[in-house]
Amino acid sequence: MNMELSRRQFLAAAGAGVAGSALGAFGFGAVESAHAKAIRDFKLVNTTETRNTCPYCSVACGIIMYSKGDLKKGESAEIVHIEGDTDHPTNRGTLCPKGAALLNFVKAETRLKYPMIRKPGSDKFEKVSWDDALDRIARLLKDDRDKNFIQRNNDGVTVNRWTTTGFLAASATTNETAWATYKVVRSAGMLVFDNQARV
Amino acid sequence: MTNSWTDIKNTDLVVIMGGNAAEAHPCGFKWVTEAKANRGAKLIVVDPRFTRSASVADFYAPIRQGTDIAFLLGVMNYCIQNDKVQWDYVKAFTNATYIVKDGFEYKDGLFTGYIEAKRDYDKSTWEYVIGDDGYAVVDDTLTNPRCVWNLLKAHVSVYVPELVERICGTPKDKFLKVAEMISEMSSPTKTMTSMYALGWTQHSKGSQNIRSMAMLQLILGNIGVRGGGMNALRGHSNIQGLTDVGLMSNLLPGYMTLPTEKEVDFDAYMSTRGFKPLRPNQMSYWQNYKKFFVSFLKSMWGAAATPENHFAYDWLPKLDVPGYDVLRAFELMNQGKMTGYVCQGFNPLLAVPNRKKLTDSLSKLKFLVTMDPLDTETSRFWENHGDFNDVETAQIQTEVIQLPSTCFAEDEGSLTNSGRWLQWHWPGGTPPGEAKTDVWIMAQIYSRLKELYRREGGAFPDPIVNLNWSYADPGDPTAEELAKEMNGRTSATLYDPTDPSKVVVEAGKLLPSFAALRDDGSTSSGCWIYSGCFNENGNNMARRDTSDPDETGAYLKWAFAWPVNRRILYNRASADLNGKAWDPSRKLIEWDGQKWAGYDVPDIAPTAKPSEVGPFIMNAEGVSRLFARGMLRDGPFPAHYEPFESPLANIVAPNVRGNPVARVFKGDFAQFAEPASEEFPYAATSYRLTEHFHYWTKHVWVNAVLQPEFFVEISEELAKEKGITKGGWVRVWSKRGSVRAKAVVTKRIKPLICDGKPVHVVGIPLHWGFMGAAKKGFGPNSLTPFVGDANIETPEFKAFLVNIEPIAGPVA
Q1: Which chain A residue lies closest to B246 (C-alpha atoms)?
Q2: What residue segments make up the domains of chain B, in order of their start?
Q3: Is the confidence at residue B551, as pLDDT, over 80?
Q4: Spatial CA neighbour of B790 closest among B690, B660, B701
Q5: At the topology level of CATH, where does A46-109 sit?
């Protein structure tokens, strides 16, 4: 057997009820396997484990998400448990009061599910399809850009800037999202552009 | 962070000032505990409040918020006066020996060249004397009165313990104890780490707060060593990454800068980015700027970026002002000069100062688009929630489109932590309802915009329709495709410039690292500092090998750290002029006679001789800067300035209000309380609680149970003076707004005596709003002033003035 089991693999294996056979390989024999059989299976044994990192502060603690269903197999997946990753060098399995409640963030009642639109003067959001919402946004952006884009300044210098619509980027999206966002925003000539680094 | 979370275990002294790691970064703070338990390290906390970090400190000293520079210059003065300086490090690795131009001086709170009307300096004297050989003139004996060291010594000499006590309210004996403990770290075999966060950045002189400590760390020889460094504890999981990738008004990825309209063409732009070395033999790594820049333009516009069109230089927008940061954005909105705003995972209605101004501004927009996993206050700014959001809905003509995005658990990609580790993560759950990833949303908006321009034409469509967007599914690029694009690749075979028969990288390959970048258009790289993150070895950000030879805390095979997997920046400075570790027990990299090697990726050319090439390779000097030349707007040295709203006038410069070069918009100055205001006599500050993260966890019922309700924190003395009872209701108001809260009357806050007068501190946590699972409440931004740091516009959230009174509670 692989003697270089990581801390997490060892804990998972022990929990999953195969500790008997693993310990058997160390020479403990039948007593442990009989004992192991008497213990009910680890509750998370039929879940899919996925590695992730906590989205809150910048310590970036390692976490393991346990799901019913496997996205990699094309199934839908429901996360049922989140805990600290014991192999992670920084947090070594620990989580703070925020990270420990991550499951309830994923499942918060105020998670948004559908695109919505609030019309001028209205007192409510109304459901809208993605296509309609995105078409509307593209139209609003283009109309404003066409109207207010500055190709040359008063000295005749090419400046190609757009300052009447702005973009505020996030604090927790991935670097890959950041790069895609950067390309879209900058190629449009937008200068009113910032992220949440300061607040 | 120059170092990493796991490196903190190697320190001898932790100074937490401008942060509260025990509560805001609990699992990172465990490495402080580790250092205390296993090395006997000590912890000092300097803070207006006796925080949980303070409660486990070896020594705690109170300080008035907004006076950190006076304190730190005081410590520097103590070290200099008591010869507690790591001299070999200072002489060889800093610009202490450099001679400064005649004419430069500091007087009455101002440096040479102040132009009051512009709130700016003419910085022409803030420069070195350049000799006939083209290099900066130095005096290795430190006897020249114009050398940086002697100017610094004179500059800090006024900050004696008595003055520190008058300004900061830190009793002299406590200040001296801190100064003495810190000064002991000047030994080459002792190191101190600085852990700070928004307690230092959110001031009108935030950059100089940090610079003060960085200078102190250089004087003590603590930069580049294990257990040392300047460690910014970033507040969110990926603001490090968002900034690295350049999502700010004036930035390009990798800390390059967007052209201004004065840089009329490519050559004019490059002419100020030569980074010619200021001393012989120095690397001055930014000399490679053109390679980074051209490779970035190739990533943006691919085949359309050619040598003939200067790689599409004209397609980048050109700035007419230093930057359109979030404060300027809301100012423009308020002036009616903006049409639309898109907020991606950002809730400015609670995060930006002067809430009333924000609501007024958003109400003047034609449209607002939000993308967020949560139902944010910003997306519902138009909805009336009683006095928690008292708006006239029908009057607000802004069209709002609220888009549901996935959260971390449903998304794939990398986040960059405080220690610059890019850690890949994988999705484990199906998004709720119709929520979509941000990448999908951005790609869909882009595709539609491009199609509209193709169909209808319009204002200068070239940069949009020619944007390099060669993903397998243009409507939904994968995280891996985007990561590879940031890493960069070759479009032609690269040959060794010194031996053209040798192939360095074949055509069409991912780049091994940024060392392979070229300026002729044969390479592309979206973010040069990330190059190496996803190369022909695979996705290095996904690595999860926990090996750590000799347990140095480096973990070189866990994920990927920028640049080139280096874990401690400036690590060449961990060794002396002969290339031997200052502290043999904390060896990091050493010179073996031919090359540098050790536990970390060397931050120097592998064969650069230690006696010749300085360790600070990004600086044209090759050394670090105690004197910052003209690189900061508010001075080459830090100086004490009061916050714009302060309980007392500036003692060292009574005529200077706030930071003399901070940008203040016209209407906002009128909304500042006067110094030593009788109307607003109390010094307020904002902070986080350990049970909450920003404005997110009020949506999480567990955290909403743990800390359900908005409160403010005051001392027993102030409570008695104002007749406020424990748990009683109070109204707190500033010149900009008013909130009501329950009062937590605590021993954690004590009045400070500043210049003989008591100063009461009011603490205001920031986690409440009108959406989510927690009780509705207010935040500090209803009260805070609309002004930012002079260099980077971080709003002054940490020091402002309020008044407080007891009120009858709401009817239950």
Answers
A1: A182
A2: 5-232, 438-475, 666-806
A3: yes
A4: B660
A5: Phosphorylase Kinase; domain 1 (3.30.200)
Size of interface A-B (CB pairs under 8 A): 495
Q: What is the predicted ipTM?
A: 0.98
Topology (CATH) of B666-806: Barwin-like endoglucanases (2.40.40)
CATH number given to B5-232: 3.40.228.10
Q: What is the pLDDT of residues A141-194, one digit of tens each?
A: 999 999 999 999 999 999 999 999 999 998 999 999 999 999 999 999 999 999
Chain A CB contacts of B486 under 8 Å are: 175-176, 179
Q: Rounded to two decimals, what is the model's pTM?
A: 0.95
Instruction: Give the whole-angstrom CA distance, residue A181 versus residue B344.
Output: 10
Q: DSSP assignment, residue B121?
A: E
User: Using a CB-CB distance cutoff of 8 angstroms, which residues of chain A are in contact with residue B479?
Assistant: 174, 176
In this structure, are residues A27 and A53 in contact, taking their beta carbons and an 8 Å threshold? Answer: no
Span B154-198, pLDDT tens digits: 999 999 999 999 999 999 999 999 999 999 999 999 999 999 999
Alpha helices in B184-237 (DSSP H): 198-201, 206-219
Distances (CA, A) of B77 to B71, B104, B190, B398, B499: 10, 21, 20, 55, 53
- Contact across the interface for A175 and B413, Cβ inside 8 Å: yes
The percent helix, strand, coil of chain A (3-state, each to 5) is 35, 20, 45
Cβ neighbours of A158 in B, within 8 Å? 264, 314, 318
Question: Which residue in chain A has the smallest CA separation from B546?
Answer: A89
pLDDT band at B626 (very low <50, low <70, confident <90, very high): very high
Chain A residue whose CA is closest to B556: A89
Read off the tokens for B374.
Answer: 């949560």
Domain ranges of chain A: 1-45, 46-109, 112-143, 149-199
Distance (Å, whole) CA B332 – CA B319: 15
pLDDT per position as a tens digit, A75-105: 999 999 999 999 999 999 999 999 999 999 9
Angle at B372 between CA B369 and CA B375, to 5 degrees: 95
Element (H, E) at B717: helix B716-722
